[in-house]
Amino acid sequence: MKENNTKRILFVGYNFSPELTGIGKYSGEMMHWLAEKGHECTVLTSYPYYPYWKIQQPYRKNRFWYKKEVTNFKSGGKLRVIRCPMYVPTKPSGVKRMLLDCTFSLSAFLVSIPLLFCKKYSRVITVAPSFQIGLLGVFYKKIKGAMHIHHIQDMQIEAAQDLGMIKSPKLLKALYAVEQYIFKNTDIISSISDGMIERIERKALKPISFFPNWTETKNFFPIEDNATLKKQFGFKPTDYIVLYSGGIGEKQGLDAILTSAKDLNSHKHLQFIICGTGPYKEVLKEKAQKMNLSNVHFMPLQPKECFNKFLNVADLHLVIQKEKASDLVMPSKLTTILAVGGLSLITANPNSTLHKVVSKHGMGILVAPENQEALNTGILIGLGELDNQDIKRAARKYAEKYLAIDTVMQNFNKKLIIEQNSRVLQFVD
User: Fold this and answer.
1) In 3D, which of 291, 285, 299 has the Cα closest to residue 234?
2) How many CB atoms are closer than 10 A to CB 166?
3) Contact call for residues 14 and 45 (beta carbons, < 8 A)
4) C-alpha span between 400 and 370 (Å, rounded)
5) Starting from the edge strand earliest in sequence, which strands make up the sheet with 296-299, in order?
6) What is the largest CA-CA distance in the chain?
7) Phi/psi zone of residue 194: left (φ > 0), alpha (ψ -120 to 50 degrees), beta?
């Protein structure tokens, strides 16, 4: 990269590397990619806690104060990470999540004040959730004149409202007013799916850019012989593995997996794996014990170095969402499943973006959300003798064409970071 194309970039968001799942994975990969390309990047974030809802080692000893980490790259780029203290609830609720958001915003604001007296950052990127982090981007933009990019991974207020986590009309009105102020004072707003973009455009009254989540197609790929892999992870080669891998929370409706395991217990070679961590995992374990489910296995979140093999163990991947959340959140777990050419069983409303994309490209089995009979039927379709190789090939093809990290980030870097005057962008051509 030519020297005059390098930028000083400030990033603000509380999820970041080394979190292996969710928003932190994408934010970390994005900033590492930009630093490797020669940019000078500073990150204001917190300590890794998701999806455990507990700050992880070796960071716990530093969790009550700030910590700096610096990585230099051969390209001349630099990544400076400033970790900020914040409250992390062990059992998250609506109120506790608001407290998490507020404590990070305050600690990040305090550490951002000295940055006002340093050399200017030409780009400031904020990531929602938390939506209010966008205020820090607006603050820096107004004082230093930087371009502010506000990227929305999750429509946080709508999700909290639809799922009943926030019920006060006055509080909702206040939150939407703050969000509107951010929208009005932001240069570029982006999001990860057509459905989310449509909803945000109706609120922001300005065009929203498409900046999709990606996957590492070089590190995640299909492995043909999964019978050998099954033995490595303690299963029989003849077992049919149904896998859910991701965050384990009450709002995700994972009880349905236990019900499916009970209803389909007569299929003796059918085995269910629930992999990951979260506040609801122990509850699910207790329920599985009470239901005497010998065909359900709980496994911890797998390390990155063996995650490709682990995903290839599955004959069927479950992507389960609540009905009301199906067009607010594009499930991050799906991108990696597509990369390994996995057969996905996805719960989505017919009018949702997720349903339309999966249906258009023929890359998964679609069933109605929060419908136990439909979920059971979908599992049997995956288990059946029908040839699902076309779906698996379509999944991998879609990942290679649209979701490869270099494809997405090269467009982002060229059109947003390097070019000076771009305002409305489509990051994937």
Assistant:
1) 299
2) 19
3) yes
4) 31
5) 296-299, 270-275, 240-245, 316-319, 344-347, 365-367
6) 68
7) alpha
| pLDDT given for residue 328 in this prediction | 52
Which pLDDT value is given to residue 420?
A: 52
3-state helix, strand, coil in the chain (%, to 5): 45, 15, 40
Q: State residue 429's pLDDT score.
A: 42
User: How far apart (Å, rounded) are the C-alpha atoms in residues 429 and 427?
Assistant: 6
- Paired with 274 in beta bridges are 244, 298
Taking only Cα atoms into account, the Rg of the chain, rounded to an integer number of angstroms, comes to 22
pLDDT at res. 33: 96
The separation between CA 284 and the C-alpha centre of its own chain, rounded to angstroms, equals 22
Q: Is 69 helix (H, G, I), strand (E, B) or coil?
A: strand
**CA 329/CA 345 separation, integer angstroms:** 17
Confidence (pLDDT) at 325? 59
> Helix H segments across 122-216?
134-144, 156-162, 169-184, 194-204
- Residue 297's DSSP bridge partners are 273
The tokens for 224 are 């043909």
| 140, 116 Cβ separation under 8 angstroms | yes
Q: Full-prediction pTM beyond 0.90?
A: no
Instruction: Using alpha carbons, select from 14, 252, 20 the residue that is nearest to residue 129.
Output: 14
Return all residues near 11 (Cβ < 8 A) that are at least 6 apart: 27, 30, 31, 41, 42, 43, 44, 45, 124, 125, 126, 127
CA dist 17 and 81 (Å) reads: 10
The two tokens of residue 71 are 């990585």
Task: Locate 147 and state its tokens.
Answer: 């371009």
SS3 (DSSP) at 363: coil
Q: How much is the pLDDT for 278?
A: 81
Token pair belonging to 247: 């965050």
- Please tell me the number of Cα atoms within 13 Å of 187 on its side-chain side: 22
Tokens of 205: 């009254």
pLDDT recorded at residue 5: 78
Q: Supply the pLDDT for residue 2.
A: 42
Which is it for strands 365-367 and 78-83: parallel, antiparallel or unpaired? unpaired
The answer to whether 323 and 372 are in contact (CB under 8 A) is no
State the Cα–Cα distance between residues 360 and 340, nearest whole angstrom. 19
Q: Are 146 and 124 in contact (CB under 8 A)?
A: yes
For 160, the token pair is 């909290």
* Residue 221 token pair: 């790929």
- What pLDDT does 330 receive? 58
Q: How far apart are CA 301 and CA 307, in angstroms?
A: 9
Low-confidence residues of the chain: pLDDT under 50: 1-3, 421-424, 427-429
